[in-house]
Description:
Radius of gyration of chain B: 21 Å
CATH topology of the largest domain in chain C: FAD/NAD(P)-binding domain
Strand content of chain C: 25-35%
Largest sheet of chain C: 7 strands, antiparallel
CATH architecture of the largest domain in chain B: Alpha-Beta Complex
Distance between the termini of chain C: 87 Å
Largest interface: B-C, 59 and 67 residues
Number of strands of chain C: 43
Strand order of the largest sheet of chain B: 2-8-7-5-4-3-6
Number of domains of chain C: 6
CATH class of the largest domain in chain B: Alpha Beta
Structural class of chain B: alpha+beta
Oligomer: heterotrimer
CATH architecture of the largest domain in chain C: 3-Layer(bba) Sandwich
CATH topology of the largest domain in chain B: Naphthalene 1,2-dioxygenase Alpha Subunit, Chain A, domain 1
CATH superfamily of the largest domain in chain B: Naphthalene 1,2-dioxygenase Alpha Subunit, Chain A, domain 1
Number of strands of chain B: 16
Number of helices of chain C: 17
Amino acid sequence: MTNASAVEIEKKIEKIIYRTALALDDNDWKSWFDLCDDAFFYSITSFSPEINKKMTYFSGNKKELVGLMDMLPKHNTDHSPLHRHTSVYTVEVADEGQSAKAISSVTIYQNMLDGINSHLDSGESRLFVIGKYFDEFKIEDGNPKFLSRETKLDNRRLDKGSHWPL
Amino acid sequence: MAPRNHKNWLKTPKVEYISSECYNNYSIFEQEIEHIFSKVWVPMCHISEMSNDGDFRSTQIANKNVVAVNRGGDVHVFLCPSIDRPAGNGLSTDGLHELHSEVKHGGMVWTTLDLNPSLSVEEWTCGAFDCIADAIDTEEMEVFHYHKAVIDTNYKLWHDTNSEFYHDFMHYFNRVSGFNDEYFARKNIPFDNGHVNVSSFTVNYEEYEGFEDRGELSFPNLPPNQWYMVDLFPGYNFNLRGNAYRSDIVTPLGPNRVLIEFRGYGLKKDTAEERATRVKAHNSIWGPFGRNLHEDLIGVAGQGTTMREGTETRNILHGRHENSTIHDEVGMRHYYEAWGKFLGVNPMNPLALLEDNVQAAE
Amino acid sequence: MGQIVTNDGQNVSGSPKNDSLNDTLKRANEAFIKEQQNIFKNVWVPVCHESELLNPYDFRTSSIGNDNIIICRAPDGKVNALLNVCPHRGMLIERRPQGSFLEGQASGNPKRITCMFHAWQFDMRGNCVYVAREKEGYQDRFCKDDAGLRRLRCSVGFGGFVWVNMSDQPVALLEEWIGGALSPIMRQISSSPLEVVHYHKEIIQTGYKDEILNGLERNAGLAANLFFPFGHFASHNADEKTVPNGENKFPAPNATKSVKVNLFPGYIFHLSGPTLHVSTITPVSQNQVMVENRGLAPTSDSEQERLARSKHYNSIFGPFRPLKSEGPTPNGKPESNSPELSKHYNEEWVRWMEKHYNENGSLTNRVVAQGQKANPNLESEASGPKVVVVGASHAGIAFADKLRKNNFTGPIAIFDRQVGGPMERPPLSKGFLLGGGEIVESKSLLRQKKWYKTNKVRLKTQSIVHSVDTKQKTITVNNGVVVNYDKLVIASGAKPRELPDTVGVANAFTLRQPSDANAIRQAANNADSVVIIGGGYIGLEVAASLRKKGMVVSVIEAAERILARVASKPLAEHFQKLHEKHGVNIFTGIGVDKINHEDGIFAGVVLSDGNEIKADMLITGIGVFPDSKLAADAGIETQREDGGAILVDEAMQTSVKDVYAIGDVSIRRDQSLAVESVHNAQETASIAAAAITNNALPAIQTPWFWSDQYDTKLQSVGIVPVGESDIYQVARPGKKEGGISFWSYRDENLIAVEVVNDPATYMEARQCLDTKQSPDPKQISNRSYSPIDSGGARS
């Protein structure tokens, strides 16, 4: 692997992380899944000083996620849009360019729509959660695809929570 | 029928009801803090949260800071004016006033602000836990999940939701997986002191794509895919569903604001794989990103919105009768009977009587 | 809350509570809540614009005074307002700010308003159409028929705004409430359909009242102020008159005029050049208010016009306007440079809050003092008028007039609960109903403004007299202000009787006040058919007016004939034929068993024979009862302990010295039958005026009365004793075609005459009765026989 191609892959990985943020912001689950390998595994985790344990708040493979997202219209959901501010901190390409890991910071705002008392709240932006993305990629023909994403939250107070992946 | 004008809207309902004042009046809230939360046994945390000598775990009960400390394997609970951490190790308890405490019912740490409690924990819960005792007291458990929510609603509205399954119409999973003969055969069983539990039925997990059958990892002595619920007065819920056990505990912050702490439990002996299965089962329904909890919380937040302070008093119906089975609102009726006794008020018109009481006291 | 104390008395509480701080916060919160109850839940609130819910099933949510509401458009296009609260367990039914119910929600079906919690479903009118497992859970104890939503008063108008009033009995109809306040911009905002093109909201850290009063400083450039009832006011360009009419007015894209209308308690319509800016307040807490800002433009705008308007709008009202001149002002005392505007607003505020203060007796004095301070005019009243009249009725006004004509020089004040100047009542059931406008015209005012000035009569409208203290000789008005009197004249009139089943039913009316007539007129503009219960004069006059509008009219009279209480049989037959000829369906000798309504809107009646008459609106005209509560509460003698007319002597004095009662509210002790008529009002007014000015009491005139139906004019003089069998009538042909009169006799004595379309004969009949002459009953049917001076003088 040449240095040039590693840089190229890094750029592609940055791009795919940002494209994912845009797709998730739009609740465009399909575009997100298109960026994921079939073996993709997603989880939301946090560490609780209260019980002194690392916790998993949510997890699922690609098939499960697709099923859950398809089922969303049948659920009663808070539709207040979530918007991510993501900065890619590190990208590490390994395995001769066959795989990579990236760490990004993420801050998610909720733009209130129908959550509580919309006459007052709708249109207001609130900080929803903060944390980091720990992503792993599989790279084929120079093109990265998500193998896994762990969304490590700082928050343990999550109030109404969400039906949407973060 | 026809929409109602103001007079008809406020008409006394033909079925059982309580007044929304129970949920949003500040004086009632103050009375609850004084006469209920300062008196009852509160399951403040789980023993596994303080497993090492010197570990402590703090909380607030009725606006008082309380800390539970592991001292040589024994739990002691103290009033602690200045505690500022949720958990840690090495807190000096010198000079702190010790409260009564017990470890009971699956390793929960119970305490009460009542300096001379007339009942033990077992006497207080008076059999409500019997249905799941074999499952939660056979093996040592530990907490694997903790998160909390602060919701602008009354704590009792949250407990109401826990006390009835009629709201399963809100949960798609429950609508498709339950609602069979077995589901409707489940009964609400009232216990003294306002507690209720709901007996088991078998959950059909295969009805909802993506949810695995939970038979293989059931809790000890629990037949596969069974579901039990214990609703403890005044706002503590214990829920055993196949291979996942959870609790939620309320701390009222005001008439229209409540802190709810959610915990998930596994067996200490779980292998990593077993634990992962339990965690997933727990999260799919009850996690902050699960299907049902989000809906339940939207529900009570909505009630909190319409019943915030200053809203017009209205009638809240508790009048469903289905032979005490799953969509019967008997659980709430039982609860408010006990609640009314604690405060010396009639939940249908709590303020009228409350004022009488105040006058009588003066 | 109790502290934790150990057995040895040591306080071991974790965090001691600051009681005084908590109590202060609690009190502030309670005051805020009271304000919500007293003001915001009783006023008309412009919650949104009709363009925000264009299509059937579209909805918008909002809140008024802490209560959440849904505004939705029904399939028939009508806009309805409903409380956004599920009748089951109080869940907020719709959480979104805006959307369509055409799509089903997760727990419910399309075209339904679904409560997600337990899947109860409602239609666009608030009918409950589905209760999950209804029979299983409620058996026969409760069903969806018991689970309708709470419907709110809702009107669309004044530039297409949706107005909601949380009270079922608002103090005024929307049109009365706004009165003339929007008139400075009414033509502009009504000339073409508008739509909301800009929306943003701000939460400002100040109380709503301070926000409004601070905002008045910004009226500085708008020097000319206009004041309206209910605390509304308008400010406009001082140089408005110099600007030629025409193109430069909104909605013209190059408009320049600026007018700002403040509707109490905080809804501002600001026409600024080519844009209309409407801001509405929603108090959030004692020190927090949400302001919603809407910009409106004509739907017909071209893209370029819209852009130009938008630019203008943003520069003045937008969230990023260059100088945030309208932005939040820091907490503190508002220092308005428009003290008159502040005063006008504050006076109204005090008036609304008075109810609250009365509930807390201990505060009353303090607030009365504040109220007096805020309103120096009221202060002068405390030492003020010596003759006080309660009720600007026909009797009340006639009394004041007579008093002045009797050279009375002391002050006269009239207090009346109605909005606006006192009106002639008789036209209300007649020609008035045929008009098409939205506002009650001023042409039928009892007296023009000038009369009050010339005669030095102070008229205080919107003033409810709460109590009379006959010992202290004082009355208590609206905001706790106490007014003393030397002579008190109660002229509070009568109230129409209602059928209990019609109370709260939309499109069901009685007719007494101008506001009633206005409401009937508006409803009639959107109705094809009407049922009128009661075949008395009011009922028949309304029947004639509405029939003229082309409506299908059915009159139901329980007695065997129409006009059974007030007219002779031959006259009643004459009028029955007249109405039938005009196509009115008259049902006599039959009762009403049931009032049908759909969605709370009148739908028809079921008669005692089981037949049903469907109709769009209902008018009940079954008589009136004297409005004598004020007197009865003050210990003044009335016919019965629980009410009835106030008993008066021949000088109209009540059982209490210096308190008189006149008009429909009074009855002389020697009088058996109450007569409600203009004549009675005028006569009793004259008597009381004479008594108070120590003049000889005028002779009692023969009562007279008139009625207009179609092109027929009835004039009657004397009272026909309809229940007495020894009375008989003789018909006399009129002097012109179509004229006829019915002469009622007992033996040879003339008792009363009813004249149709024959004024000359009426004058003769009146002369006969006034001079106690009885023309020969055998000859009176002969047109050539003159009833006057015919030698029939009675003993």
